[in-house]
Amino acid sequence: MAPESSRLPVRPPSPESFTSALHSPRVAARVGLWLGIAFGVCFLTGLISHYAQEPAQPVPFPSSPSWGYRVTQGLHVTTGIAAVPLLLVKLWTVYPLLFERLPSLRPLGAGVRRLAPVAAERGSIAVLVAGSIFQLATGLMNSAQWYPWEFSFRSTHYAVAWLTIGALLVHVAVKLPLIRESRAAPVEDQPAGADEPSRRSLLRATGVAAAVAVLATAGSTVPALRRVSVLGVRSGDGPQGVPVNRSAEAAGVTGVDPATYRLVVARGDREVSLSLDALRGMEQVTEDLPIACVEGWSAMGTWTGVRLKELVALVGGDEDAEVVVRSLQQRGAFGTSVLQPSFLADDRTLLALALSGAPLDPDHGFPARVIAPNRPGVLQTKWVTRLEVRA
Ligand SMILES: Nc1nc2c(c(=O)[nH]1)N[C@H]1C(S)=C(S)[C@@H](COP(=O)(O)O)O[C@H]1N2
Ligand SMILES: [Mo]
């Protein structure tokens, strides 16, 4: 005889099987609103960062304000990090809805008509949840410089961003009546005595978790927060007071001999070759400009060097040229960058030879690196050996 329990009717759970009063539509709507704001800011700042890194730009990315990218990319990473606890709480409040019965397919005609909108809504939620988790996970891993994947981070993160934001818009449209309703009424506490935290304290704790996540990382960009930023990536100092993303050793650029180093500036078949002394003999300009990494950290530096446009002028190029910058670094993707005319025309764009008044540390790009205002750090090429002027 079968044991007693196996004869009990087994029913799949339904949303009502989850009895916690915290699975409340109002809590979900409130956390959803915060999450929607975080995702919106993250998406827009992400578009800016993606465009800034496009080698061919129909409209050149502006070189002012010099701190613009520092702010937008700081916001991108910070809102992404704040979204992590918000998404976890949001998913927890709504997961019982996964167990809602689908409408019956019989009779077929009416059944399909009933099922289609439900399937579309569930489909958009599947894309939204999968996309959100993918974006936050890959974004965090990228910030930590951990790339266990084969795909290109930037193009994949960009494509999935559109998918996710599209699914988010569908989701908001579907839930609009519920969102309206929840905005009209405050989130009221369930009767006391229940064996769990109240809805309000869940919301408070969620807000605190998001704020802690932000404070623990924002110090990579906001110096005043540095001491509390235990999760900050590269928020500490590096040589000459500026953090280092990739060291000379990691890039395989070691033992550069200042006596034999040459910078070649080329335009068509014209070429000029300059020694380090020749570069130091040109007019030296000092500018305060930030390094703002796509990973979210940023730091101010005082750079001294030659205006890039002066070097381009040596081969007869003018300010509306595009410049391909090449590094001594042989391997890796960051050895080459394209500098748009908007940056070349800006007087603050330098081939820097010094930082904080001393020759560049090898890790900051000795003997020479590009530094331009309002540019993603990844394009501020270090160990520059060749400038190719296209125009
Ligand atoms: N040749 C080369 N230049 C490079 C890199 C690199 O890996 N190779 N990293 C870039 C990145 S991602 C950043 S954020 C800045 C960091 O500059 P820093 O190390 O001097 O702070 O350098 C950029 N220049
Ligand atoms: Mo970077």
Topology as H/E string?
HHHHHHEEHEEHEEHEEEE
> Which structural class best describes the helix and strand composition?
alpha+beta
- Summarize model confidence as the mean pLDDT: 90
Helix share, percent = 40-55%
Q: Report low-confidence residues grouped into runs of 5 or more.
A: none
Q: Helical region count?
A: 9
What ligand species are in this complex?
Answer: the ligand Nc1nc2c(c(=O)[nH]1)N[C@H]1C(S)=C(S)[C@@H](COP(=O)(O)O)O[C@H]1N2, molybdenum atom
Shape: elongated
Distance between the termini: 89 Å
Strand content: 5-15%
Give the C-alpha Rg: 27 Å
Strand arrangement in the largest pleated sheet: 2-1-10-5-6
Number of strands: 10
The biggest sheet amounts to: 5 strands, mixed
Write up what this structure looks like.
By secondary structure, the chain is an alpha+beta fold. It is 42% helix and 15% strand. The protein is built from nine helices and ten strands. The chain has helices at residues 25-52, 68-94, 108-143, 153-184, 199-218, 248-251, 276-281, 308-313, 341-345; strands at 262-267, 270-275, 285-292, 298-307, 322-327, 336-339, 350-355, 358-359, 369-371, 384-390. The strands form two sheets. The protein has a five-stranded mixed beta sheet with strand order 2-1-10-5-6. Strands 3, 4, 7, 8 and 9 form a five-stranded antiparallel beta sheet that branches. The model has no long low-confidence stretch (mean pLDDT 90). Bound molecules: ligand MTE and molybdenum atom (MO).
